[in-house]
Design goal:
By secondary structure, the protein is an all-alpha fold. Helix content is 55%, strand content 0%.
């Protein structure tokens, strides 16, 4: 992508409303990945893979 004054600004501005309609893990949609990231950082005891799956499902519904 090359920056062309005014032209590029309006192209990006027009594209923004459609940026949220992409699958999880693409664009700016990373809700399910938050679960794995926080699990790796916090390492909570007693949390099972089924708990994480349920939380991932809950996160992607919104």
């Amino acid at each position: 992508m090359f920056w062309v004054p005014f032209v590029t600004f309006w192209q990006v501005t027009a594209d923004l409303p459609f940026a949220t309609g992409v699958p999880d893990g693409h664009g700016h949609t990373h809700r399910a990945e938050y679960v794995d990231g926080w699990n790796a950082v916090l390492r909570p005891t007693g949390v099972t893979e089924q708990d994480l799956d349920r939380l991932r499902e809950t996160m992607t519904r919104g």
